[in-house]
Design goal:
Length: about 250
């Protein structure tokens, strides 16, 4: 007798959605290796999927989405891989600027943009500036981003304010720190999704993720699809968040 496994219902019609979702786009290299392709082919497939998933999140009503595209540590990768990623970023930014009229997504960059070449920096500034008045989903693209680097940046900015007398040491509290980091003014992530089966934070949103729910999935990023996104959202909706209370 055949045993039929009941397919999980992946409908998200009646669930409470997280306000802010973070995604660590991991597994491009392994996806390419499995197919005997160069790592850059995995990143191209990952960039294609990035476009699909951001549209999907915007369509289903996610208000804030943070995508980890390039970390402060990723510069250590072989030069040809870094160059391939820069080419993909440039293509995406040029495309975003070209399709500007029809879009509702508000694009923001988190990370130290001064690490990029002047042409990429200027595309980033134009894309951020040109989309700032939109009222759709806020898409934070974490590029040259590191959670520790972000906290060093915030600490220096606060220290300078103390030094100049603008604030006193006693004024330093959690709100001031939240207001001094790249995501200032945005809610903390409720849900962080990590495809590719690794159980690490990899320096992603260290301060902001204090109470985030993690969903780790055994799927490589280029294969991560709408059903996987729904699965993570349903998993999140089932969690009992206590924020340290009972
Ligand atoms: C980690 O996978 C992935 C990255 C370091 C790059 C992520 C970038 C993209 C998905 C492209 C984004 C493009 C745009 C346009 C924003 P990995 O290479 O470490 O994978 P592995 O662990 O299997 O080696």
């Amino acid at each position: 007798m055949a045993i039929f496994k009941k397919k999980q219902d992946l409908s998200i019609d009646n669930i409470v959605l997280p306000r802010h979702v973070g995604i660590i786009m991991d597994g491009n290299g392994r996806w390419a290796k499995k197919r005997g392709l160069p790592r850059s082919a995995g990143h191209s497939a990952g960039a294609k999927n990035f476009r699909k998933i951001i549209r999907y999140c915007s369509d289903i009503g996610i208000k804030h989405l943070t995508m980890y595209a390039f970390s402060t540590e990723n510069w250590k990768r072989p030069d040809d891989e870094v160059q391939a990623l820069m080419k993909l970023f440039k293509q995406y930014l040029e495309e975003a600027l070209r399709d500007f009229q029809d879009d509702t997504i508000k694009l923001r960059f988190i990370g130290d943009i001064t690490g990029f070449s002047p042409d990429i920096q200027s595309l980033m500034i134009d894309a951020q500036e040109g989309s700032k008045d939109r009222d759709g989903m806020v898409l934070n693209l974490a590029m040259n981003y590191g959670g520790r680097d972000e906290l060093v940046m915030a600490t220096k900015s606060i220290a300078n304010k103390v030094k100049s007398g603008e604030i006193a040491v006693e004024d330093i509290d959690e709100k001031l720190i939240s207001d001094s980091i790249y995501t200032a003014g945005q809610p903390d992530p409720d849900l962080i999704i990590r495809p590719s089966g690794e159980y690490r934070t990899s320096n992603f949103l260290l301060w902001q993720s204090a109470y985030a729910e993690y969903v780790i999935m055994d799927k490589l990023w280029p294969d991560f699809n709408f059903d996987d996104m729904n699965y993570a959202l349903i998993e999140y909706a089932k969690r009992n968040r206590r924020f340290g209370g009972v």
